[in-house]
Amino acid sequence: MAKKLDPQKLEEAASKLRAIAHPMRIAIIDLLEKKEQMNVTEIYETLKIEQASASHHLNILKTKGVLESRRSGKNTFYFLKHEALSQLVDCISRCH
To answer: Structural domains in the chain?
Structure first.
């Protein structure tokens, strides 16, 4: 007998996938994979985008549990939540 899908879990998964599916957010994830942690200024200057755009994408990734942040003085540093990303990639890999 087929296992019933939990609509709430399906929506959560879809929401995370939408969050990482945008080309600019993929670029941010790639950047943070290489640099471990960066502040907003470093991110928008490296990617050559507007500060507001960088903040918008960072907020989406943080809200969906892909990134974490920590404050240090006036700066907020962003870094990947490797566990969450690994689980997402592993889950998708099993669904082929």
So the answer is: 22-94 (1.10.10.10)
